[in-house]
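Human:
I keep going back and forth on a fold encoding question. Comparing notes only helps if you start from a blank page. Show me how you would write down a chain together with its backbone fold. Write it directly below this note and I will take it from there.

Assistant:
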Amino acid sequence: MYKLMLVIFMMASSSLFCWEKTFGTTGYDAANCVIETTDHGYAMCGYISGSYLADIYLVKTDANGNKLFEKTYAYTMHEDCGNFIQETADLGFIICGYTGNAKALFYISLIKTDSSGNLTWSRQLGRNYNDYCYGNCVRELSDGYIICGKITQIYTESYVYLVKTDLQGNTIWSKVFDKGSNAVGNSIQLTNDGGFIICGTGYNSSTNSNDIYLIKTDSSGNKIWDYCYGGNGINDAGFGVQQTSDNGYIICGCTDSSTKVRDAAIIKVNSSGAYVWGSLIGGNDLDEAHSIQIASDGYVLCGITKSYGAGATDVYLFKTDFSGNLRWQKTYGGSNEDYGYYSEITYDNRYIMAGVTYSYGSGYADCYLVKHDEQTGFTDYKSNFKLPMQSFTANPNPFSSRLSLSLPSSGAVYSLTGQLIMNLPKGKHSVDTSKWREGVYIVKSGKETKRIVKIR
């Protein structure tokens, strides 16, 4: 029997109200995503301790966070996790995550349910038996679903993985984007031109570090452009993205490029991915932004903080104006570790957040659901900063008869065997590749190396 705990706070100074609730077992449980549903209740997905390891977990609540039903989904005697949930047009739910099989390999788990959480169908998506595949975000389309995540081949690097399915979850096409050893797609959105924007993490070989990574594709998943944003830090990461009213994009994540600790990062880019501005939010310890939403008067972000709050780590909610200047921030949690992973703006202009708590609940760790009223809280933020945009790009990739290169310094193209194909000066180039042989080529610019593929 799952236990439920309710904590109600009345903030007399501003006459504001919020509530916190926990869900789970006596073991280790976590919520990775929450959405507001058509009936103004909430649906939350994550995982709970199952009979063997972990099961995918779905909880539906009313508007006050009272549980209406809960469901678990497990298809293996291994590990299962739900990372993202969306309400579908038929008022059911689509959940993506991952599932392990008997050989300890992982596949993207895609689950469709009805409005009561009853299983309609489930799919395990991946390329072959030598891959580890994870689904981090899913969006419903008119003719199916689009999922982003990562794919890792045994003993090799990880890549951003994009999968399009039909309405029954059957794979129509998939794309792999190579951006170094630790690439992952964490968030995907449909764009106004019918394509997709993907935010995640990519590897920058010139600095030997991870950067915030943004990919723009067309409706068929073909890459139009991609950029990395980062500096001298080693662990920059991108977690969320939204398209803005000017057809640009607002990105959230974290960076240790400008300080000795990790700060929450907000980056605004234009419709072509060019850097516009950036802002750091946080204190003297670790701070991260894991999701971002657009409000009528700014941006609302949710993540984690060690700089503020009552415990070792706390849920971190903050709001900025449209220029990235902090308006207010708020923490939630107790004396132990608590984490915020996703938030949404609700119909009543409040905020719902999901994560995990070690401070409250009945188990070692529990799913954590928080409803928050907007308030003016404490402010303490870093001055605006600039994360340099890495200008070394090769598009499209794969390519056919023509290749566009942008080199931050002089470079060269080589065959996979090391034969020099051509030297190129610093700058932008449009290269006729119609007579090149099919296969893999290496482009070098300064200390950075990129692999490109020629197809017919």
